[in-house]
């Protein structure tokens, strides 16, 4: 069974315990890096993979009564907007709810295919690890989570993940890198109401958190499998939504990484929004060639050319 969490990938139903030598993988993603567009591209290229999107709709419509922020007609609150407007008041509430909603999605059993068919790959947006080691951590360092709230959050996070064990484990990370300025431009284009007040400095903070965790490996990670998880870094600073050549390169890199990691492990796609480096075109050509020559038939896309235009203008 394999899992991709976008940021993440999973295969099959509920993850089963693995042999000690297997290497888990998990992904994480910052805001406005283009993950919605990337997910569409991934789904078009690998149609047998199951995509599980981030539960933003749940965060925008949380059942709650007796609050001034609650929409009277529907009896619900936009917790995402409340967190952005009053982070000191709502950060702990939002991070608790978002983490639990991500965990529910990860534990939901996948649809099983016909007998004798490979288990399906599941792709998730972000994970309980990015929730803690990027977003909640950043809110604490910015002073929006009090030390007591941060301690309580980490305590129940530790408890849940340690008791769930293999069911919540991930096997790899796919990290989408783009400069914070690029992400800000994409964020402005998508014009999500709750994000109107987000500034460049906030995106720079999220970028730094992702880099510390996934590239520099300086973030203290409290789970051995997450510490050992391999990371596949993709440069998405270019406008890949409208450039089919860049799309082909990205999908080739994903396919090659999936094959290199065994194609059957649970791993998380991590999308971040910041990185200035560009990959040389010659290297990209080699990666595409490696993808074509090394992947097995079971992991190849349903159509021979992995390049395909992606519709829509949303990015996350």
From TrEMBL:
Molecular function GO terms recorded: ATP binding; deoxyadenosine kinase activity; deoxycytidine kinase activity; deoxyguanosine kinase activity
Keywords assigned: ATP-binding, Kinase, Nucleotide-binding, Transferase
Assembly and interaction partners: Homodimer.
PANTHER family: DEOXYGUANOSINE KINASE, MITOCHONDRIAL, DEOXYNUCLEOSIDE KINASE
Domain spans labelled Deoxynucleoside kinase: 32-254
Protein name per Swiss-Prot or TrEMBL: Deoxyguanosine kinase
Any Gene Ontology CC annotation: mitochondrion
Reaction equation(s) it catalyzes: 2'-deoxyguanosine + ATP = dGMP + ADP + H(+); 2'-deoxycytidine + a ribonucleoside 5'-triphosphate = dCMP + a ribonucleoside 5'-diphosphate + H(+)
Entry-linked InterPro entries: Deoxyribonucleoside_kinase, DNK_dom, P-loop_NTPase
Short name of any one Pfam family annotated for the protein: dNK
Naturally occurring in which organism (per UniProt): Catharus ustulatus (Russet-backed thrush)
Protein family: Belongs to the DCK/DGK family.
Gene3D superfamilies per record: P-loop containing nucleotide triphosphate hydrolases
